[in-house]
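Subject: Sanity check before I submit

Could someone independently write out the structure tokens for this chain? I want to compare against mine line by line before I put it in a report. The sequence has 138 residues.
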Amino acid sequence: MRHYEIVFIVHPDQSEQVPAMVERYKGVIATRNGTVHRLEDWGRRQLSYPIQKVHKAHYVLMNIECDNETLAELEHSFKFSDAVLRHLIIKMPKAHLTPSPMMKEEKSKSLMEGREGAREGRPAEAPAEPVRAERPAA
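---
Independent answer below. Compare away.
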């Protein structure tokens, strides 16, 4: 069996169906003796360019181990699902179990926001207002 990394983006109107879609894909993998090593729901994000006049989409990352038949079935389900706008499947040399850089970035953002206030035992402050330089009267 080979390792693959799969990223697919779902139409924002179908975001509430993402957990059911992921469970269905996990079921397809499990019935054919494959394994899901990493599953990350990145949520709604801004697209780099509009796809079908849509500017935001729901992103999901999966690292799996499966055979070619299972991969073909997954790809078939991606192609013929109206909810999936785009998908990308990449063959990987080994299983990746650690959080992706995208998730590390999200965690560091949330930790940085909470750390400022936690340091001094108070909520994080709003940014200071800009200081305007006064011009001398001529």
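---
OP: Matches mine. For the report I'm noting this point. Residues 1 and 67 are 5 Å apart (CA to CA).
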